[in-house]
Amino acid sequence: MITLSEYFMTILITCMIVNLGLALYGVFFKPNLIKKIIALTILGDTANTFALIIGYRMWVAGVPSRPPVFTEWRSNNPLLLFVFTKTAVDPLPQALVLTAIVIGLAVTLFLVFLTLQAWKIYRSVDMRDIRRLKG
Amino acid sequence: MSYGEAVLLGITALAAIFSTIATYMAIMERDLLKAVIFSAIQSTIYAFIYYMLMAPDIDLVYIPVAVGLYPAVIIALIKKTTREEKP
User: Fold this and answer.
1) Predicted ipTM?
2) Are A15 and B16 inside 8 Å of each other by CB?
3) What are the pLDDT digits (tens) for B7-54?
4) B21 occurs within a structural domain
5) Which residues of chain A neighbour B84 with C-beta distances below 8 Å?
6) Which domain holds residue A97?
7) Displacement of CA B12 from its chain's centroid (Å)
8) CA distance B37 to B24
9) How many angstroms away from the CA of A75 is the closest CA of chain B?
10) Which residues of A touch B52 (CB under 8 A)?
11) Helices A4-29, B4-28: inter-axial angle, 10-degree rounding
């Protein structure tokens, strides 16, 4: 018997898979270089969302899951730490996503300047024109 | 059985459906400026999804980068090159 939470989680994952397919279509089959860059940013964001979905923790017995930020570290109560480890989501995918977002920004800036250079040389950002000019 | 998680994940799933619509319009739009704006809408919805997936520290980085910097850089590129995508 599937619960309501699992049903909504399935909808979320299905939408992300559709987004991934659309972004891959944009990267592979759209001839315009700017459109390829836009699709690539969407592709990277969707991959990051998959990583976050893997690290997400469902609620345990009605207790809400919480962000992996431990704020009660000043009190020496070990029970608080126990509850935190039982309810917080996984912080490792979040750290990886944080790095991936910044790397994606650098890659996108590089591709933007590459496209600008292609425009200066060929006067076109369309792959079909560029392919015809230089074989 | 608690319905709190179902409500939160339902809102997240609704946002995911809207993000799919925004992605489709961003990929299929011929006017590149409109495509960038649809991409920014998609990024905003993604930021909301990240928040609902208990990652508020990702949002601190993601919102300036994906809603602010990406569209600004690509709009500058469109201004220097061409706005219309050839069919």
Assistant:
1) 0.93
2) yes
3) 999 999 999 999 999 999 999 999 999 999 999 999 999 999 999 999
4) yes
5) none
6) 4-133
7) 14
8) 13
9) 23
10) none
11) 10
